[in-house]
Design brief:
This is CobW C-terminal domain-containing protein. Belongs to the SIMIBI class G3E GTPase family. ZNG1 subfamily. InterPro entries: CobW-likC_sf (IPR036627), CobW-like_C (IPR011629), CobW/HypB/UreG_nucleotide-bd (IPR003495), P-loop_NTPase (IPR027417), Zinc-reg_GTPase_activator (IPR051316). It catalyses: GTP + H2O = GDP + phosphate + H(+). By secondary structure, this protein is an alpha/beta fold. Helix content is 23%, strand content 30%. The protein has 11 helices and 21 strands. Strand 12 and strand 13 form a beta hairpin.
Amino acid sequence: MMDIEHDGHTHTNISHMEEDECTSDGPKVPVTILSGFLGSGKTTLLNHILNDTKHKMRFAIIENELGAVGVDEKILSENANEEIVEVMNGCVCCTVRGDLIVALKNLHKKIEQFDAVIIETTGFADPSPVAQTFFADTDISGLYSLDGIITVVDSKYILERLDEVKPDGVINEAKEQVAFADRILVNKTDLVDPSQLPVIEERIRQINTAAEIFRCSRSQVDPKNLVNIKAFDLDQAINYKPNFMANPKAKHDPAVSSVAFQFEGFLNINKLQAVIGQILDKLGSDLYRYKGVLNVAGMDQPFVFQGVGMLFNGDFTGQWNPEEDRDCRFVFIGKGLDKKSITDAFLRCECDEDLRFEVGDKVLAKTGMSDDDWEKATVVKLWDEGNPYRLALEENGEEIWAPFDDDDCIKKNRK
């Protein structure tokens, strides 16, 4: 097993773990499952719990990624010094349950480092097979107790998700997530008309009459209502799904896919802004969730982005770990995604950090749309806020950026 320290987290590569015999003489470790459709606010909630100081609990975090590239360790708060295990390339409820069991067993060897476990599932995970793990596997049931299932729903989209017609034999993940919840967070209430909230709650009650419902924005709910609550009810789970303790293989919507990609290189921030806008314009309504960490030329911090549909959020945040590669990685999840077109779009943003001009060089700068809009300028700085050059115009001393290092923006002054 290899542990790599990363921004205060320990990222454990579970593919190298050995499954050892596990025993426990102490109390069982409580486990909370965070569930919810893509983009509902699970990672925001997780950050909120980790940054809260009142509960005084230490958590081991198990992250699940749909896609072969992990990005959540950058999105999680850098102040949260918790153990992170990423279960990659699938959803916990089906293809990688074995990895989940191995991860839990190996985490227990470090029991002195944490008080509880939080599992953040992918948005396509039916929570029932995940919960089943804590009853069907004798080793796990002896080490851990399922404390509760917390489901986060997006106020703006939940009714659409619950009523979505699926092909025969394909589960409605959003409905399953609501049905098995012990606590339901109706999140992003600031994005809908207040009159919609009772309608949403009534629809939820048609599926789950027992769960406590919290209205919130930005997943802000007091963690005392979410962790260490001893809320999971096995009888309730069996009442909703009589075959809960069986071992079915979940069948997900085949139209939904993920595009995950990782590559080394620097990106030009101006090209990147244009590409992201084009992707959202073209795919917005079909994008369930996307997130990534990008290496932008001229910037010391990684550009971290995430979003749902047309709602995009991105900023330069945190620091690169000195021991990690400064690469670019992202995951897009949605309907009918073309991996080549998405990856090619990002690759077109690549640039070389080695520039053609030096500070002090006399150049011509493009200052307008006309072919004649060129002015004499001097290079005063290289790589300024993601732009290759900052220039001082010779005529009036005004400083401008040259967004690209090509002859369409900046060229040698031969006079």
